[in-house]
Every structure is written in C-alpha cells, then in structure tokens.
Amino acid sequence: MRGVALFVAGILVGTAVHSTLAQGQQPAVRLNHVAIAVPDIPAALTWYQDKMGFKEVIRNTSPQGQLMSAYIQVSRDTFIELQQANAQRPAGLNHYGLEATDIKGAVATFRQRGAMATDPGQPSAFTGGILANVTDLNGGRIELSEQPP
What we know:
Strand order of the largest sheet: 2-3-4-1-5-8-7-6
Oligomer: single chain
Shape: globular
Structural class: alpha+beta
Order of helices and strands: HEHEEEEHEEE
C-alpha cells in the first residue's frame, strides 16, 4: 500500500513540476481571432454567413449607430473580427488575437524574450477583456487579451 501511495505522489509531483516548467517556457495563450479590415462590413458578414456558414455573434457600433466591427464564430473558441477599412486601417489583415489566461505574465514573458509589448490596459468597453499588444519583427500587431470569466 505504501508503494502505491509513493507511486501516486510521484506522479502528482512530476505532473506539477512538468506543468510549472512548461508554463515558464511558453505563456498560456491560444489563438482567439483574426481581424480583417473590409470596405463593407454588411457585405462581408453576408458572404461569411452564406458562403462559409459562420454565424455573427457580436457587433460593435459607434455612438451614431454606425457598424464599426463584428465578430463571426469559426469554432467554439475561434473568431474572425471584421473591421471597417478606412484611411488609417487599409483593407486586409489587421492583426491576430491571442487569448492569455494571465496577460500580465504573458507580457512579462514576451518582454523577457526581447519582444516589444504594451502594458495591459483597462477592460475594453466592447469586450470587457484586458488588452495589450505585441509588435512582431515586421511591425505586425498581435493583440493579447485576457477575457473575464
């Protein structure tokens, strides 16, 4: 019986050590969304719904009621964010978003590795998530978010 208890204890300690080491090597993040700027959001929504079968799940409008962006669901945890293209945001890929379980820890890890990362801000009025950004070597934006429970 003592041998079984030591065996189980060894597995539990090994799992905890492995998880701790793995977290030190890679922040706990997963792909959340890809943001695409489009010239006509309603037309893009129709296309993604009709041709791809994706469903709109949330939209962001300006105080004047103008559609600014919308999220469509690709899978349970993955989305495409359609944004209105404009002079500051040309049509095409705008950024991709990673969801972090601990945004402060993820930012610290990325900075420790030499990446440029902004401080996490206040919760977003649109999603409620805490956001930060990492800039890749080509100037591309990677949005980090920690979502509320």
